[in-house]
Structures are given as C-alpha cells and as structure tokens.
Design a protein that fits this description.
The complex is a heterodimer of chains A (113) and B (277). With 113 residues, chain A is mainly α. Chain A is built from 3 helices and 2 strands; from the N terminus they run αααββ. In chain A, helix 2 packs antiparallel against helix 3. Chain B has one domain: TIM Barrel, CATH 3.20.20. In chain B, strands 1-2-3-4-5-6-7-8 form an 8-stranded parallel β-sheet. In chain B, helix 3 packs parallel to helix 4 and helix 7 packs across helix 8. The chains are: A mainly alpha (113), B alpha/beta (277).
C-alpha cells in the first residue's frame, strides 16, 4: 500500500475545471456566507467556540498552497490524544476537539490479554 | 452495474429502499448490528434484534432479488455497559450457525473509553474463538483518528488476529494509510455530511490503489442514502475510470472479502440481473 499523490487523477486539470468548477465555486461561497453570517449575528457569543475556531484554522489550509490539504484539515479537526477516557462523557461526537475540556484519561493498554 | 452494499442497516429502511436498490443493481447487502438511536435496556431486546436480522430481513430482501447477510454484536455506543455486553456476548453463539450470519460486527469504539475497549477486545476474542470474520466501526468525527489508532494497535497486539479477515470501516484521509498499511481491509462510507463524499472516496482510491477497499452506503435511520453506491458508480464514470476499475470496487472487492466466510455465496438465480450480463 503506497500513497501515490502525483499523477493519480485520470482527468486533465482543464477537464477537472470544466466538470467541477461550478460545484466548488458554490461550496466556497457557502463557506464565505457562513462566516459573514457569524459576523452579522445578533449575538456575538460563539467567537470562542472550539468548533468555530477549528473551522477558522482549517480554512487557512485551503490557501497555503501545500499538498495533503484534506489530511491536514482532518487532523486540525481531530482529537489527537489517544489516551482512553475513563468513562463515556457523551454519546455523540462534536466535529472538532475541545482542547479546553480536561477529561479524565488513561494511557491505552492495547496489548491483548 | 451489479454491486454489493457491504454496509446497510436495512432494519431502519422501508421496503421501497430494497426495491430501489434492486433496480439500481444491488445483488447483496451485509447488515452489521448497530445502535438503535437509544441505549437498549436488556439482552432480550438483542434477541429480538438478532432474530429480525437473521429471519425477517433476509426474507424481505429476497423478494427484491437481494441476498441479505448480517454481522452480530453489541455495538460500540452501548459497549460502555459491561454487564449488558457480557449478556449479549453470551447469546451471540446461538446465532452464529444461522445461514446469513457472516461474522462479528460492527464492533469498535465510540468515545474511546476504557470500557469500550474492553468490550471491543471481548468481541474480538469471541470472533477468534468461533473463527469468524470481523467487521469494525471506527468512531465519528474528532474521535476518528484516535479511535482508529487504538483499534489498529489493539488488533496488532492480540494473538490470532489475521488482518486479511478484518474490515476496519469508515476510513477517511487521515486514517486510511495506517489501516491499509497494516494489512486490514477498509471501507469508505458514502455519507452526505460526515465520513466521505463520493468525490473524496474516489480520491482515496486513486491515491492508495483499489486493493482491499470497499465502498458502502451505511444507510440507516440518520442522514444517509441507500443508493449511495450507484451514485458512486456514476461519479467514478464521470471522473473517467473504466468499467473494470469500478466493478472491482463495488463488486469484486466485497465478494473477495466476504467470501472468506463459507456462508457468503451469491446465488445467480436470485439476481434480477445475471452476473456478467
């Protein structure tokens, strides 16, 4: 299993643009509109929300010109602390890691017994 | 094009979905046991659930020419309850000989807790004891990376685990390298919001190659699309991939992985469209 990054998409760039430009133009405008909506909100009470902060950090990746954008955005949006939680704190995930929350964790002991 | 949907929670879907899937080329589904949207209160509820998965659903699917297979377990979201986990583990062997049961799944982790990991290891041991293939759920969203890491490390440390007999599902860009790199099969889940879009799934196949990768709808009671696989086929064609390359992902690969269970046998006469048609 090897990650071949270059030359793996069978479509020429010109065809990718012709086929997909309108879809991603629309998606990008939706992101911009969401950020504007946050600015226009009647209650400015979410600026520090960990999900919004992770989104803003992820957006920086879009324009940095470096490859592997998706993986890098995924890691920004991930909890990278692999220690186990002592007990279930929530039934569902949130979409971004809350670094400010100090949850009880222990080192994973993955060895079989 | 004929396809196999490797992951579909048909108990949550209407019969109309079976018909639509059949019309779009689906010849078989495999249905892992999963979370009902709430934590269940007793082992008897799991008996009802396992009976439905092994009796009612295969009959409902067969009416539309779809072969229905299943995987049994107590899912990761309920695995925090160790007492219930032990009770469910005790009854699973009663069902393993039923003709549509392929193995143990979808086990795994949810919030990556100590109890979840113990319940996961208990299920793996059961699978090894009864020589069953394993289907694994990896956590959602921000828990995906750490949960997948813990799952892979745990499996590699356990005696007797054969990676080729294990599907580590719901991979994304930041987890697929170490899942495939350690010899496991993996699944790309085609969801409208979370997990992978059609385009991102195709990107991952282009980058990591077509071997040991399967796509699936994972359609259930949440936002999901029972016709995700035919939509994926359409997007693969749009991207310029050959019919043979598409067939490998949606038919050949799942058949290869699932055929590790002697019970998986595509009956050509059941199919609305003949093989090789």
């Amino acid at each position: 299993m090897t990650d071949h990054y270059q030359d793996t998409c069978p479509m020429p760039q010109s065809e990718l643009i012709a086929e997909y430009f309108m879809e991603y133009r629309a998606q990008l405008l939706d992101v911009a509109a969401f950020l504007d909506r946050m600015d226009r909100s009647v209650e400015q009470d979410g600026e520090d929300d960990f999900r919004y902060q992770a989104l803003l950090e992820s957006i920086q990746v879009l324009a940095d010109g470096q490859p592997g954008r998706v993986e890098r955005m995924q890691m920004i949006l991930s909890d990278q602390d692999t220690r186990l939680l002592e007990e279930r704190d929530s039934i569902s995930a949130y979409g971004a890691a809350d670094a400010s929350q100090q949850r009880a964790r222990t080192e994973a002991e993955p060895a079989g017994d | 094009m004929q396809y196999i949907d490797m992951h579909a929670h048909m108990v949550s879907r209407a019969t109309d979905d079976y018909k639509a899937m059949s019309l779009s080329g689906c010849v078989a589904v495999t249905e892992p046991a999963f979370w009902a949207g709430f934590d269940r209160v007793s082992v008897d509820v799991f008996r009802d659930y396992f009976n439905r998965l092994t009796e009612f659903e295969p009959e409902r699917a067969a009416k539309y020419g779809i072969q229905h297979y299943t995987w049994l377990c107590l899912n990761p979201k309920e695995a925090e309850d160790r007492e219930l986990t032990h009770q469910v583990l005790d009854i699973i062997p009663e069902y393993l000989d039923r003709p549509n049961v392929l193995g143990i799944g979808e086990i795994g982790l949810n919030r990556v807790t100590r109890n979840e990991l113990e319940s996961f290891k208990d299920h793996v041991k059961l699978a090894l004891q009864y020589e069953q293939p394993i289907h694994i759920h990896t956590p959602h969203l921000e828990d995906k990376y750490k949960g997948s890491r813990v799952i892979v490390d745990t499996l590699l440390a356990m005696d007797g685990v054969t990676p080729e007999r294990v599907m580590v599902d719901h991979a994304e860009e930041h987890t697929i390298p170490f899942i495939l790199g350690n010899g496991f099969w993996t699944g790309l889940t085609l969801y409208p919001t979370t997990k992978a879009s059609y385009q991102r799934a195709i990107d991952m196949i282009e980058r990591y190659g077509p071997d040991r990768i399967i796509v699936a709808s994972a359609c259930d009671w949440g936002p999901s699309q029972p016709l995700a696989v035919p939509n994926f086929i359409y997007e693969m064609r749009r991207r310029g991939h050959s019919e043979a390359a598409i067939k490998k992902i949606v038919f050949d690969n799942p058949r290869e992985f699932l055929s590790q269970s002697p019970k998986f046998d595509l009956h050509e006469e059941m199919m609305p469209l003949k093989l090789n048609a």
